[in-house]
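S.,

Sequence below, as promised.
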Amino acid sequence: MDFSATLRSKLPRVGTTIFTKMSALAKAHGAINLSQGFPDFDPDPKLLEAVQEGLQGGHNQYAPMAGNLHLRQLLASEFQSMHGAAFDPEREITITAGATQAISTAIHTIVREEDEVIIFTPAYDCYAPIVELVGAKPVYVQLTYPDYSVPWDLVVKLINHRTRMLIINTPHNPSGTTLKPEDFERLQRIITGSNIIVLSDEVYRHIVFGGAPLSVANYPELAKQSIIVGSFGKTFHVTGWKVGYALAPAEMMEEFRKVHQYQVFSVNSAAQFGLAKHMQTTQLHQLPAFFEAKRNFFLEQLAGSRFKVLPSSGGYFQLLDYSAISSENDIDFAERLTKEHGVASIPMSVFYHADPDHKVLRFCFAKKESTLAAAAKKLLAV
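The prediction came back faster than expected:
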């Protein structure tokens, strides 16, 4: 049966993601894949052993809908020690099937038809489509180039009675920048006393270079109107496990869980058991230095290239400006770089509502040093 006449797409402008396209192109041409944000090295063997223990120890049926309580307790302790914030593990923390599910659930929980959601571009590509799925309107605010700072004065002008949510992401994907204390303080002043909820995407929260990680949880008044999203996959190099979490005030989390239980109900039991056991002994404070060394190694290998390096202060992405090399648009140049030079990246224009034509590509440095050295050698020849 042909449904083309009756099937109306809810996302008519959405096609195959650029991440899938560039990874497929890299595979087809035997290129080094620095496009998708995933490590090419294995996680800590002790984590794998802990999950295996969970599998063999009977953790193979449904987990509690809100998640493994011990894992939630450990998250509460971590937020208390890192950010001085008290979250009730029973009522204010939920384990999710990855951070993207947490983001989707948060938006479906808070946002209604005809509401407006402020999204800063360049933005991770799931935000706007999910907003559109609930019938709301994305309102785009372009970050200031080249430092990707937030134009807060413009944000104030755009806020109106329809503004229901504001999405922030720090450390930021794709730019690798981080919000500063003055950003959080300004945001707190803007939303306090309003009905606006902040969705704070903090999946790279442990990976901050040159300073302590900051979260909306550091700011009590801001935290009262926020949903925080995090990712075990990003923290422990297991992105394929798709285990994340959300934290929010109890009344908000109660509504969040109503949506969560009908989207996924619960998350992999053995993975949660293993993560909880591993979190008791792992040294997360070493993670920033681990990734900063990878970033520095990549940049050292690129010394002498015609690419211009843009600052990176967190996460595991490095932006390179290719304007001294080509006048091509970034999608064409990224494809040619993959096909002719053997290195796959992500063109920055795909993260915008309107292409600013900055001629910048995003490269993932969460890779083995051998991978980064081989990629840099190819980029030096461009």
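The CA atoms of residues 143 and 151 lie 7 Å apart.

Coffee later?
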